[in-house]
Amino acid sequence: LEPPAPLPHLIYVTPACQHPLGTTMRMEERLRLLDIAETANSWVIEDDFDGEYRFQGRPVPAIQSMDRSGRVIYVGTFAKLLFPALRLGFMVLPPELAGRIVNALSTTGQFAPLLLQAALADFITEGHMSRHLKRMRRIYAQRRQLFRDIVTERLRDEITLSPAEAGIQVVGYLRDGIDDIKVSQAAAKRAINVSPLSKYFQNTAPTQGLVLGYAACDAAQTRDGVERLVAAIGEVLG
Ligand SMILES: Cc1ncc(COP(=O)(O)O)c(C=O)c1O
Fold first, then answer.
1. For the structural domain made of 138-237, what CATH number should be given?
2. Which CATH number is associated with domain 10-125?
3. Where are the domains of the chain?
4. Protein residue closest via CA to atom 16 of ligand 1
5. CB atoms < 10 A from the CB of 180, how many?
6. What is the pLDDT of residue 57?
7. Closest Cα to residue 182, out of 163, 160, 208?
8. What is the spatial distance between Cα 153 and Cα 188, in angstroms, rounded to a whole number?
9. Which of 12, 81, 96, 167 would be a feasible disulfide site paired with 22, CB 3.0-4.6 Å?
């Protein structure tokens, strides 16, 4: 990690599960990032999305827990722990920012509904959340492994799956010469929604790949979905 020029006022990272690649930021990279933020006197937003779904490797502490200078804003969401339509998330703020954020929320009218917050608080304090998370981690780990096995078996020559340790999606790199936008369009015709990796690149030449969500599918749906993807890639290859 080299300090970018000009030095940033704000750095936004998804260290638990880089979006979209799913890689986890290593300890030395986290410390280096804090160094850079201190040099630049910048705020850091640590969006810990999907940090709860880590399937391999040792747990890595949040950047905020290593920060001695109160510059890291930790952001979490219940979208993946429960469901996206809940529209609830949370921030753990450096104390000096709390008042300003409350003011900003009040000015913008971005209130989280109180009843939902109260119900969620009960859900957490009564222990349902940790049981739910334990159960979903087990289910997703099984689905992830099955998905990896089937893709490796059926698309060995076309797709190389990223070895990422976390997240409820996985990146599959496409063999040279296969266009990810064409594949995602051919997949959409077969009711399969995959994101082309190339759309995430801004300043460098794009890598061709697919961002593949596996977590919502049981074994039968996974087999069926991969077959549709095989057909979509077949169509693109002609
Ligand atoms: C990088 C990233 N952060 C956070 C979220 C969760 O956002 P929200 O809580 O607004 O649904 C997502 C959702 O996909 C995401 O991709």
1. 3.90.1150.10
2. 3.40.640.10
3. 10-125, 138-237
4. 19
5. 23
6. 83
7. 208
8. 22
9. 167
CA 238 to CA 235: how far, in whole Å? Answer: 5
Residues 99 and 79: their CA atoms lie apart, in Å, by 25
Query: Measuring from atom 5 of ligand 1, which residue has the nearest CA?
Result: 49
Angle at CA of residue 226, ends 223 and 227, nearest 5°: 85
Burial (CB count <10 Å: 0-12, 13-18, 19+), residue 207: middle
Q: What is residue 184's predicted lDDT score, i.e. its pLDDT? A: 98
CA–CA dist 214, 193 (Å, integer): 11
Residue 168 is which amino acid?
A: I
Rounded Cα distance, 57 and 76, in Å: 21
The candidate with the shortest Cα–Cα distance to 200, out of 11, 20, 16, 4, is 20
Q: Which long-range contacts (CB under 8 A, 24 or more apart) does 191-199 make?
A: 191/228, 192/225, 192/228, 192/229, 192/232, 194/229, 195/20, 197/20, 197/171, 197/173
Q: Which atom of ligand 1 is nearest to the CA of 47?
A: 3
Å from CA of 79 to ligand 1 middle: 7
Atom of ligand 1 nearest to the CA of 14: 1
What digits encode the pLDDT tens for the residues 100-147?
Answer: 999 998 899 888 899 999 999 999 999 999 999 999 999 999 999 999
Displacement of CA 27 from its chain's centroid (Å): 18
The pick from 14, 19, 21, 83 for probing ligand 1's pocket by mutation, whose C-beta has the most ligand atoms within 8 angstroms, reads 19
Q: Give 72's pLDDT tier (boundaries 50, 70, 90).
A: very high
CA–CA distance from 90 to each of 46, 60, 72, 77 (Å)?
A: 12, 20, 14, 6
